[in-house]
């Protein structure tokens, strides 16, 4: 028995949609036919009528935190993949800052096994750059790759030593996997949580300067040039980083980059007060930085969109801004936010948004995913572009409720998520 999706509005070009019927059987897409008025024979198959809805390749998120092993009170692979599915994501790449961190074959296998038995979407694990993410000793990249790691990162913390980063890049290049960098120079951020801008000035706070991020970007593109590695910059948030990445790309350096919805939609001037749901790393920057990130995404300097889904418990976030951990959840608001604020307002085409969340992440990371084509993996998301709903964190499938977007009224909510040919989530 297969699944027919009937009357799917698929993206053709720009904002142009084409109506198609899509059939899948087993894990793969069987056929895609133009809807010409006659319905295909669906006898014996599950039918989903997608009339009036957008149908896209399953969304891909290359930067997420699933918290397992070790921080199951924040999220688990079960709850995190449900949250991803509810947000329309069918493939997610998880960060290794768990407890223990993912720096051994056993932890990679643990995550992959859990994902197989308890997860409902595809989980691709990253391995650490350095053992324990301490920046002192390289992890065993050969072994991590063998176990299934798809790249190396110490996300959560920057690699402080240039020599360590250079060694990591040389080794990653030799095993043919990318370095994914959380760019942050610790000597420039000491204890601050807000960025240098209006908010920090008004409240007399110690502030995080843009250079704390951009200095690592500048250092690392030079090291990437020297080593030839594929270097991917995490959660770009500053005008200076965008400029450095643009320049590096012009020089033919193998650099790619990602940006999160919150760094495109919020600046430090939107922070309502001492509220830890507005505390994330990197911090919300100035309106000028937001504009530079949007321009970087538009001109291709920034390749892809990611959520950096970073759940924390309510108790942890209630400790007050100084003590609360950095991070906000992202899966269940990402597409509606970007659709409502950029596509529905006419700034981006639907094709631009969908590509940045499907085919482009697949291309950047060499995954055979992200397109709707016969013979390809049946990963499909169905999205209602019309119904307006309010973001209600109490409804999240994630254990995390930590979002600055509560109460926002949005359109573009996923209604069905199909991963590997299975309907893994549908509305109500
Ligand atoms: N982004 C965050 O604010 N927090 C992330 C770490 C990270 O992505 O650097 C986390 O693990 O909570
Ligand atoms: Zn990070
Ligand atoms: Zn992260």
Automatic annotation (TrEMBL):
UniProt-listed GO biological process terms: 'de novo' UMP biosynthetic process; purine nucleobase catabolic process
Pfam families: DHOase
EC class (word): hydrolase
Binding positions (Zn(2+) 2): 155, 182, 235
Catalytic residues identified in the record: 308
Keywords of this entry: Hydrolase, Metal-binding, Pyrimidine biosynthesis, Zinc
Cofactor: Zn(2+)
CDD domains membership: DHOase_IIa
Keyword tRNA-binding attributed: no
Record: residues binding Zn(2+) 1: 63, 65, 155, 308
Taxonomic superkingdom: Bacteria
Matching SUPFAM superfamilies: Composite domain of metallo-dependent hydrolases, Metallo-dependent hydrolases
CC per GO annotation: cytoplasm
Pathway recorded for this protein: Pyrimidine metabolism; UMP biosynthesis via de novo pathway; (S)-dihydroorotate from bicarbonate: step 3/3
Molecular functions per Gene Ontology: allantoinase activity; dihydroorotase activity; zinc ion binding
Residues engaged in binding substrate: 65-67, 97, 281, 312, 326-327
Cofactor note: Binds 2 Zn(2+) ions per subunit.
Dihydroorotase catalytic domain residues: 52-240
General function of this protein: Catalyzes the reversible cyclization of carbamoyl aspartate to dihydroorotate.
PANTHER family given in the database record: ALLANTOINASE (PTHR43668)
NCBIfam families per record: PRK09357.1-2, pyrC_multi
Family per record: Belongs to the metallo-dependent hydrolases superfamily. DHOase family. Class I DHOase subfamily.
Protein's name in the database: Dihydroorotase
């Amino acid at each position: 028995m297969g699944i027919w999706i009937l009357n799917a509005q698929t993206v053709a070009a720009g904002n142009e949609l084409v109506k198609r019927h899509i059939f899948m059987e087993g894990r793969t897409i069987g056929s895609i036919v133009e809807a010409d008025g006659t319905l295909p024979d669906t006898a014996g198959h599950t039918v989903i009528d997608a009339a009036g809805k957008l149908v896209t390749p399953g969304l891909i998120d290359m930067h997420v935190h699933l918290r397992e092993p070790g921080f199951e009170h924040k999220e688990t692979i079960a709850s995190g993949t449900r949250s991803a599915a509810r947000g329309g994501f069918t493939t997610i790449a998880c960060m290794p800052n768990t407890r223990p961190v993912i720096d051994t074959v056993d932890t990679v296998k643990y995550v992959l096994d859990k994902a197989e038995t308890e997860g409902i979407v595809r989980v691709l694990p990253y391995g650490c750059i350095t053992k324990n993410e301490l920046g002192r000793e390289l992890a065993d990249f050969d072994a991590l790759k063998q176990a299934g790691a798809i790249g190396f990162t110490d996300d959560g913390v920057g690699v402080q030593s240039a020599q360590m980063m250079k060694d990591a890049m040389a080794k990653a290049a030799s095993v043919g996997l990318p370095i994914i960098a959380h760019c942050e120079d610790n000597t420039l951020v000491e204890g601050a949580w807000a960025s240098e801008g209006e908010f920090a000035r008004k409240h007399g706070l110690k502030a995080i300067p843009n250079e704390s991020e951009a200095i690592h970007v500048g250092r690392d593109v030079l090291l990437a040039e020297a080593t030839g590695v594929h270097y991917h910059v995490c959660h770009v948030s500053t005008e200076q980083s965008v400029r450095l990445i643009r320049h590096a790309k012009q020089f033919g350096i193998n650099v790619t980059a990602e940006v999160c919805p919150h760094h495109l939609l919020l600046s430090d001037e939107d922070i309502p007060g001492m509220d830890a749901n507005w505390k994330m790393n990197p911090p919300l920057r100035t309106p000028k930085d937001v504009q530079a990130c949007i321009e970087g995404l538009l001109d291709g300097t920034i390749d892809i969109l990611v959520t950096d889904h970073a759940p924390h418990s309510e108790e942890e976030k209630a400790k007050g801004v100084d003590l609360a951990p950095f991070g906000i959840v992202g899966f269940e608001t990402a597409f509606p936010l970007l659709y409502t604020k950029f596509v529905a307002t006419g700034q981006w085409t639907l094709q631009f948004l969908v590509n940045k969340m499907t085919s482009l992440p697949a291309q950047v990371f060499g995954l055979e995913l992200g397109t709707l084509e016969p013979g390809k993996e049946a990963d499909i998301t169905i999205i209602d572009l019309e119904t307006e709903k309010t973001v209600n964190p109490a409804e999240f499938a994630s254990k995390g409720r930590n979002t600055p977007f509560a109460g926002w009224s949005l359109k573009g909510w996923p209604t069905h998520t199909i991963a590997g040919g299975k309907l893994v989530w549908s509305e109500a």
